[in-house]
Design goal:
Helix content is about 40%, strand content about 30%. The protein has about 200 residues and is of the alpha+beta class. Helix 1 packs across helix 3 (about 45-65).
Length: about 200
């Protein structure tokens, strides 16, 4: 059995999707708190299973094989796993956001309504950012959030992204944020030196 990519983020892990995740992903993406902001993620169980088998899991394998030199066609989809229960409680994804100018690799996170306001989304986002900047050739990451999505904007800002623009996508207003690898690594070094 292939060992799955797992990123330890503290109370949670990020782990590659598996077929066994289908029901949890469908349940999370069926919650109004998620599909209101990520409508394209809402699917039937059959559709999600097809996506997992034919697109998402193979795309993860392609991404991991390409490390460190990932290209614009690679996507990585990771479940947010609560260590205490081994339960998938959300997901964290990186891929291209075609609606913004290059370099346009973004991160997207979502968490079940049952696990909000506990810091898990911020932990997951930081874990993925750190992985991408330390293990791949990514130099700039983007994040977008609807201007009225207070929770997502707060998570993005806690992860040291800086707002660069306000953009329209499908007639909706979004804040567009970026973070550079050099700024992320400099901040980590500063924090490490401050504590030691």
């Amino acid at each position: 059995m292939k060992k799955l990519l797992t990123i330890d983020c503290g109370e949670i892990l990020l782990r590659e999707y598996t077929i066994d995740d289908v029901d949890a992903i469908v349940e999370i993406t069926s919650q109004p708190e998620v599909y209101t902001f990520l409508p394209d993620f809402r699917t039937t169980r059959e559709q999600r299973l097809d996506w997992l088998i034919n697109y998402e899991i193979p795309a993860n394998q392609s991404f991991l094989k390409a490390i460190p030199a990932i290209d614009d066609q690679t996507y990585l989809r990771l479940g947010i796993i609560l260590k205490e229960t081994d339960q998938l409680i959300g997901f964290c994804i990186t891929g291209l956001k075609e609606e913004i100018p290059p370099p346009n690799r973004e991160i997207v996170c979502a968490i079940s309504k049952h696990f909000r306001n506990k810091g898990y989304t911020t932990e997951a986002a930081r874990g993925l950012i750190n992985f991408l900047f330390k293990k791949t050739n990514v130099e700039i990451l983007n994040a977008v959030a609807l201007t009225d999505n207070i929770g997502s904007n707060r998570v993005i800002q806690k992860c040291s992204f800086k707002q660069v623009d306000r953009i329209e996508i499908k007639n909706q207003s979004y804040y567009h944020y970026q973070i550079r690898k050099s700024d992320w690594l400099d901040e980590r070094i500063f924090v490490w030196n401050s504590i030691n």
